[in-house]
Amino acid sequence: MSKTRQALIVVDVQNDFCPGGTLAVPHGDEVLQPLNQLIDEFLERGDPVFKSRDWHPRFTKHFAAYGGTWPVHCVQNTKGAAFHPALRDDPRIKVVSKGLGDKDSYSAFDETDLTSQLRQQGVEEVVVGGLATDYCVKNTVLDALKNGFKVKAVEDAMRAVELQPGDGEKAIEEMRAAGAEII
Question: How many CB atoms lie within 10 A of CB 59?
């Protein structure tokens, strides 16, 4: 009996998205414990782990100062762009950088080679958690589904920005409606 090959995708658990950051997600640091537990489980089994990160240039149309929506955040090689220091690190974890230009890249699949990396490793199902439920997590989940992967989104390992009240719950419903299993 063959087991479905899984990969873990940890979305954007960076300093700027955690309390004290320039675009802090309320309670964003609460995802650390469940994500670290998942990272340990996946590495112990020998399953791939990916961490996505916003990796913006200093000047980009993604930022409000240059016509975009968001305050300056996750600028390449800054403390804000670094992964939260309590997030598990290991040399086996692969980093996927997104948002390298002017395009709003919410998904870990946007303008990256994540799909080909997953396929090369025989991955059929991805488990996703991180920040933020209503933006980068949601878009990563939806793109994973579009790319033919089964998806499990871990509810206690994600938090929402909630620009509008209820955005996080709407995002969870949208992911579920698209075919993701919310666990």
Answer: 12
| Active-site residue, selected from the candidate residues 134, 136, 138, 143 | 136
**End-to-end distance of the chain based on CA atoms, in angstroms?**
24
Distance CA 84, CA 82 (A): 6
pLDDT tens digits for 111-125?
Answer: 999 999 999 999 999
115-151 confidence digits (pLDDT tens): 999 999 999 999 999 999 999 999 999 999 999 999 9
Examine residue 132 and say whether the peptide bond preceding it is cis (omega within 30 degrees of 0). Answer: yes
φ/ψ (deg, to 5) at 98:
-135, 165
Say whether 12 is catalytic.
yes
**Is-contact 87 38, C-beta < 8 A?**
no
Does 103 qualify as catalytic in the annotation? no
Structure tokens at 85: 């220091």
What angle in degrees, to the nearest 10, is found between the helix axes of 138-146 and 167-178?
10
Q: What pTM was estimated for this model as a whole?
A: 0.96
CB 125 within 8 A of CB 149: yes
